[in-house]
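User: Okay, second chain of the day. Same drill as before: sequence in, structure tokens out.
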Amino acid sequence: MNSQWPGSGDSWGDRTGPQPPSPGGGAHGASGVPWHSFPPPDLPPPAHPGQPPLSGPPLAKGNAVLALIIAIILTLTCVGVTDVIGIALAAVALSKDQDPEEFDRYTRWAWLSNFIHIGFLVLLLVLFVALDTV
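Assistant: Same drill. Structure tokens below.
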């Protein structure tokens, strides 16, 4: 059965044999420029000697901004100023844009503060409903 397939029984075919010509003519594209001479357009340019390497993806500031907005809304619409801690933590997170680890840490703490505040509000709502039915 292997005699009807090219190669020596390799399921991917014989890669060492002659390759079929590409539509642009060999290893060159249609313009005659080698296809491998340009980096893909979605990659950042390589760092120049003497410059620090890129430190990773940009910070997702939207997460901290959303935590700040929710903390402000909870503070203004609910029982007093109990979520001021969430506002402070989100503001500190936005000020730490040069240090990704600190930014992530303060953003997580701001969200935790918001969720604790929402949990207290749900607990109060349940207690009011339970006391109203008694």
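The two ends are 83 Å apart (CA to CA).

User: Thanks, on to the next one.
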